[in-house]
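User: what does the whole thing look like in 3D?
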Amino acid sequence: MKGVIKYITEIYRGVITLIKGMSVTGKYFVTSSRTIVTQKYPENRKDLQMFDRFKGEVIMTHNDKNEHSCTGCGICEMNCPNGSIEIITRTEEKDGKKKKVIDKHIYHLSMCTFCALCVKTCPSNALAFGQNFEHAVFDRKQLTKVLNKPGSVLTKEISE
Amino acid sequence: MKENWLYDFSSLTATIESWLGSTFSPFWALVWEMTIIGLVFLIFYALTGLILVYAERRICAFMQNRLGPNRVGPWGIFQTIADFIKLLMKELVKIKEADKFLFNLAPFIVIIASFMAIAAIPFAKGLQAIDFNIGIFYVMAVSAMGVVGILLAGWSSNNKYSLIGAIRSGAQIVSYELSVGLALMSVVIFSGTLQFSEIVNSQADAWWIFKGHIPAIIAFVIFLIAATAETNRGPFDLAEAESELTAGYHTEYSGIKFAFFFLAEYMNMFIVASIAVTVFLGGWMPLHFWGFESFNHIMDFIPPVIWYLGKTAVVIFIMMWFKWTFPRLRIDQLLTLEWKYLLPINLVNTVVIAFLTMMKWHF
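Assistant: Here's the predicted 3D structure for the full assembly of 523 residues, as structure tokens:
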């Protein structure tokens, strides 16, 4: 008798869970006009908003006074597993003190795997991920980018 | 209204038959008749296959929050046609160690099995290629032939994945044929006939799923489950199980031969759905309720073909719905489901139905 009850409750539970599963997909099907996540890319190119965590390319954030926070420490260069970052520094003399500042932060987009090690390990949060993903160019040289904008300097807070 | 050919095809087909009989000798009249029917079914077959593949891709996309094919033509409706042309152009890869004769024969057996089954299905009044007095038995016998093609395909490919897929398919169909047969038997007991046209006529007042109380509903659900397993569709698609067997029995097939297997799968789904509709949901009979005379008259205005195709579409949608909801079963779970659950329930159900019919408790 116990076995029969167990058999029937098993069937009952099975049917209930199957209906639960089908209700989930059924709900998605009915409300599909609102829940679809696929983007129709070339058509909606104008107003396409990529989500926050999208890794398009590595950029260096600059504020409106054209200041970045890269000290040229070279940690990103050391951490990059495939050598897509090269840092060229120069020494500046200020108030009789010699100081290392960044000259060029060179980023080879063609070699980058978007592993995010550089962004994570940057001690001064100078690097970030940009949302741009249309990287197709006709010349490979264009994939080598200088991340610090011309004429930009280190922000005051970090340099002091 | 009843004179219209849309509502009753028997006069139309009789006219064509008498014209052929008066124009040609009996032998050639028969040949022409068979050619016409064959051509009609061929076109119907291709069209249904294309529509079903498109529908399946769209429906599964919506269930998974995707868009599905939407580039070729408006809403992507020409996607399957483009795919079909691509398949026609593809190279037929010759397998070196394969059994060539059986390898080439297998897709034809699979497609012939589904082609033969479609002949006995009543699409509307008088729109049935051949009305056997043992229609249900014929359809079951013929559709079970498809597994021979699958087994041959698996064996002749000389590939371990193909063989495993084919053997699984064999085990699956041998088991689930029992449930399909017993579930159909319930309505055979109710209506007292194996002939499709008679079964449809017995549902003129109401469909068997309503007339037969709960046992008929149980039989319908069991039929749906077992029939899905018989057509090798998900969640019972162990025969092709992509993640384990690459593509199962049709791993080695390419081009148009692969398209045959693909088309046969969708046509089998259509056939299974139309049998479910014919037997449980009244075939081409409109929806009738007792005591709602005006409602019944409105329902009569819709042509039977529309009723038939609409109901089939609903059943096909349900089959696609659970294909895209449930994960694939393991082979032991599959056999457990059949032998420990479906079959005993079905046997008890059949006894209950026989009792109901004996006491005349059904409507």
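In plain terms: Chain B has a mean pLDDT of 83. Chain B has one domain: 95-359.
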